[in-house]
Specification:
By secondary structure, the protein is of the alpha+beta class. It has 5 helices and 13 strands. The longest helix is centred in the middle third of the chain and has 19 residues, at 159-177.
Length: 316
């Protein structure tokens, strides 16, 4: 779960952000397929596929190459079909292949509802992605197959959850690079935002500590400044840029892994989302951190490549 790709000498181009980048891409792909009738999915294609991507889904009779062919196939799908996908995140495997290529394998369940007839079953994917920049990949191959079907009494809509997972996991992918470049975060956040509870410190005070930090309040003590005071609140993308060049720079390594999520719809296409990620980090002084701290986000759907993050606070 916390494998550090960068520890593999054979994959010098890899970094800790690669796992979550690949996983976010899985949820972006599902969001494209699950979009309800009337949703304009054209923005969802942005930076999703390589120009020569190959889609090979023999159980669905699909064997096509190129983005234009994908868009034509999607446009030709019959109206009125509903799709959903659900997964245990432990069933996702990302393997660095070298030369900037990554293999994404996953076992999951799906639902397909057509004219009131519901089919539920098991499926798997075996995809290839190419890394084009830190925390950015494109699909070069999408393949997979269907397994056994099973009974389920009703359709479980996963569209909103998978769209939310795509943006949250992509946020963590950028966090895990620790490269100080906030540019990839701009498409993930609202122009007007307010984040509380992130590492806003300017100084590592963990020197001399021997034990792993497992308490959120204790973490705030060794990374001074994460105390919720006015000068630690992050506002606007300029605040995000300044923060990403300072607080995360106090870490030697950074890994996040998704654990749980709870979503409450709000007015105006907003969603209150409490998500818990396992956080495995190491300070510059070599002190390990392992926390499982839920955070509550306000996330906005604007019909773009990603939903956008508007507010953040530690979960009560």
């Amino acid at each position: 779960m916390t494998e550090n790709f960068a520890s593999r000498p054979a994959y010098a181009e890899a970094d800790n952000g690669d796992y979550n980048t690949a996983v976010s891409m899985l949820f972006r792909w599902w969001g494209l397929f699950e979009a309800p009738a009337g949703v304009d999915i054209s923005p969802f294609y942005a930076d999703l596929f390589a120009d020569d991507v190959h889609i090979d889904l023999p159980d669905g009779g699909v064997d096509i190459t190129g983005v234009d062919a994908i868009q034509a196939t999607m446009a030709a799908l019959p109206a009125g079909i509903r799709r959903s996908h659900a997964i245990n995140h432990d069933d996702i495997q990302v393997t660095a292949l070298g030369d900037g290529l990554y293999r994404l394998q996953a076992n999951y369940t799906y639902q397909l509802e057509t004219d009131g007839k519901l089919v539920s079953g098991h499926s798997h994917c075996d995809n290839i992605l190419r890394k084009v920049a830190p925390a950015r990949m494109v699909y070069t191959r999408v393949s997979g197959g269907l397994g056994d079907t099973f009974g389920r009494p009703e359709f479980v809509d996963s569209y909103v959850e998978n769209r939310i997972k795509a943006v949250l996991i992509q946020w963590q992918a950028v966090m895990d690079t620790l490269n100080g470049d906030a540019a990839p975060l701009e498409e993930l956040v609202m122009p007007r935002l307010e984040f509380h509870g992130l590492i806003s410190s300017k100084q590592d005070q963990s020197d001399g500590r021997a034990e792993t930090v497992t308490d959120f309040k204790e973490m705030k003590g060794i990374l001074a400044g994460t105390d919720g005071s006015e000068d630690t609140i992050i506002r606007g993308f300029e605040g995000v840029q300044e923060w990403f060049a300072t607080g995360p720079a106090l870490l030697k390594s950074n890994i996040h892994r998704f654990e749980t999520i709870a979503i409450t719809p709000l007015p105006d296409n907003r969603f209150e989302t409490t998500a818990c990620f396992g956080w495995y980090a190491e300070t510059l002084s070599g002190v390990p951190i392992e926390l499982h701290q839920p955070l509550t986000w306000i996330i906005v759907e604007r019909g773009e490549k990603y939903m956008r993050l508007e507010a953040l606070r530690p979960h009560d």
